[in-house]
Design brief:
Length: about 375
């Protein structure tokens, strides 16, 4: 029986609430599919600060290192917001995890079922079939990490700040490879987003993506788009895209735009894949909901567990190579939601179910 060894970092506020339900769904699938689950829970974020004095305790990091994947909840909230920026749960837990495991590829599905189009700020006639696209964001390079990164006072007394955008060809090639794998599992259509009319890094980006796809994936239909146009096209007609690939800052902005047009954060999951391989020879990855800890609804038992459940599906697919149970979970979530089981965030003000009942409805569809 295959054993799935993963770290469970539930985090704060609604993190543990949705994680408990996601693990229940995962446990059900595992029993049906003959898989042995070996989850190890550890504190992270505010829970790490409270219990160990650090958002990413050493003991948590060791558990992650000994695992094949990380199932992450979300971290942070009002309880810790007076801490200095560097000690804030999100910054002090997620960024070091990304760095430690070189999580360079962020895969964000933008999925809105046709039955939920009313949740999107876009007019329903623009998205009659809902939305189904994927954004792949480079996560460890570019403007957020390049040096020099500093603020200085100039001889004339003025103050100047500098950020540096750097990309190497090898960094662009490895994210292009991830995009190709994703595009091949869908419509084989890839759009690379850059700002090649202004930025040197984008000129290299476009050249590298073009050459890499021509050399390694002639079956993929590749197009390029400038980032300002992409921001507009996403709201004009998101389904003109299938898979998008872009650098760190553009991806940060576009993937948030994508989350908004998809209606509720409670439905969106994400995967961050590492450069390293796990003990199965597959990408080590961190899997988490796109949303945060939702302190406004924490403790009420009404948070939507779907994003966390869908994160489990992404983990099965990417870090354990288990496509069938992953697809079964995705179909069960879709079936439960379209069948009428809806938490408050996706119920259009109508009757809604709580976190646990939502998970029950998903399990019933499995
Ligand atoms: P948020 O995503 O937590 O909440 C925004 C809105 O979406 C809220 O109205 C919330 O109720 C709703 N929402 C989010 N997830 C939901 C779910 N599963 N079910 C139903 N509704 C849901 O963003 P915020 O309020 O800006 O941030 C709250 C805290 O979360 C902050 O401390 C922030 O730093 C942290 N945060 C953490 C992560 C992470 O851990 N990756 C990401 C974003 C924000």
């Amino acid at each position: 029986m295959p054993t799935l060894k993963f770290a469970v970092l539930a985090g704060d506020y609604i993190g543990p609430e949705v994680m408990a339900e996601a693990l229940r769904v995962l446990g059900h699938v595992a029993r049906q599919e003959g898989l042995a689950l070996a989850p190890t829970a550890a504190d992270v974020g505010g829970a790490g600060i409270d219990n160990h004095g650090k958002a990413l305790p050493d003991s948590t990091l060791r558990i992650c290192e000994a695992s094949d994947a990380i199932l992450f909840g979300s971290v942070g909230g009002p309880k810790w917001e007076k801490l200095p920026p560097k000690e804030q749960p999100e910054r002090a837990a997620l960024l070091p995890l990304r760095k430690h495991f070189t999580l360079f590829a962020n895969i964000r599905p933008g999925l809105l079922y046709p039955e939920l189009t009313g949740l999107s700020p876009l007019k329903s006639e623009r998205i009659p079939d809902g939305i189904d696209i994927v954004c792949i964001r480079e996560l460890t390079g570019g403007l957020y990490f390049g040096k020099p990164k500093e603020t200085t006072t100039l001889p004339d007394g003025d103050v100047q700040a500098v950020d540096t955008m750097i990309y190497r060809r090898s960094e662009i090639e490895r994210i292009t490879e991830t995009a190709i794998v994703t595009a091949r599992s869908r419509k084989k259509k890839l759009c690379s987003i850059d700002k090649a009319n202004v930025l040197e890094t984008s000129v290299l980006w476009r050249k590298t993506v073009t050459e890499y796809v021509a050399r390694n994936a002639p079956d993929i239909e590749l197009s390029h788009m400038l980032v300002d146009n992409a921001a507009m096209q996403l709201v004009r007609g998101p389904n003109q895209f299938d898979v998008l690939v872009t650098e760190n800052m553009f991806g940060d902005i576009l993937s948030d735009e994508m989350a908004v047009i998809c209606g509720s954060l409670g439905m969106l999951s994400s995967a961050s894949l590492g450069a390293g391989r796990n003990s199965l020879g597959l990408p080590f990855g961190l899997y988490e909901p796109a949303g945060g800890t939702a302190p406004d609804i924490a403790g009420k038992g009404i948070a939507n567990p779907c994003a966390q459940v869908l994160s489990c599906a992404l983990m099965l697919r990417h870090s354990f190579g288990l496509e069938k149970p992953a697809a079964r979970i995705e179909a069960a979530v879709r079936g439960a939601v379209t069948g009428g089981s809806r938490t408050a965030d996706i119920s259009f003000g109508g009757a809604s179910v709580g976190t646990r009942a939502m998970a029950d409805a998903i399990i019933a569809r499995l």
